[in-house]
Amino acid sequence: MRYFIEFSYNGSAYFGYQIQPNKISVQEELEKALSTILREPIKTVGAGRTDTGVHARKMFAHFETDKNVNDTLVHKLNSFLSENIAIKKIFEVPADLHARFDATYRTYEYYISLEKNPFSKDSSWQYWRQKPLDINLMNEACKILFEYDDFTSFAKLHTDNKTNICKIYKAEWEQLGHQLKFTISADRFLRNMVRAIVGTMVEVGSGKITPNDLRKIIEDKFRNSAGVSAPAQGLFLVDVGYEF
């Protein structure tokens, strides 16, 4: 039987979601806990992979077992796992439903702190030392993203991507007190894409480039044309959609 797990994690303690040699990852911790409790080797497939230091408020993975799984497994996993990972739900799905390939959209949020805040240093880009940002210009630039589907300029170099085509459904900035929040939703994302977009948007907001310059950056299809990647700790995966 195939099961989906819905969970969240604080990425500060991990070298990303996906298992890596000699580095602690969320997937490794999850599989170790499942294998111990179910007393059989368990492999999981995640909805995607997040980079070192990136967080997830809503992540999914699937695994298979012949054993009967009930609600007590959620409690057992939460007791076994570190405080950085929280299991929310486990539920049976059709045998062919795939956590990665059947996801219809993913949504990320990115947070920028405009004041020195010791309580958000692990969950936002501490931007208070730098030039003020014009959120209106940044939202003007967001509208340009909808005109394109090839985001090679925002993709990490030398990856195994078969295509850099993505369909963006939503991209907007809003101010919440002394914090800026960027929300972006798409059918898929390239590695480092959101952080590269945020870094470029900050260049727009600070007046280094204009919103219209974003068109040339995208059309160049060259990573070095875009801005530097925003720090990882401000990025959260907040939703993954499926046609359950």
UniProtKB/TrEMBL annotation:
Function, in words: Formation of pseudouridine at positions 38, 39 and 40 in the anticodon stem and loop of transfer RNAs.
Top-level taxonomy: Bacteria, Pseudomonadati, Bacteroidota, Flavobacteriia, Flavobacteriales
Organism of this sequence: Epilithonimonas vandammei
Catalyses which reaction(s): uridine(38/39/40) in tRNA = pseudouridine(38/39/40) in tRNA
Biological process, per Gene Ontology: tRNA pseudouridine synthesis
Binding sites annotated in the UniProt record for substrate: 108
Stated family: Belongs to the tRNA pseudouridine synthase TruA family.
The name this protein goes by in its record: tRNA pseudouridine synthase A
Keywords: Isomerase, tRNA processing
Transmembrane segments: none
GO molecular function: RNA binding; tRNA pseudouridine(38-40) synthase activity
UniProt domain Pseudouridine synthase I TruA alpha/beta: residue ranges: 8-102, 149-243
Superkingdom of source: Bacteria
EC number, as in UniProt: 5.4.99.12
Assembly description: Homodimer.
Pfam family, one: PseudoU_synth_1
Active site: 51
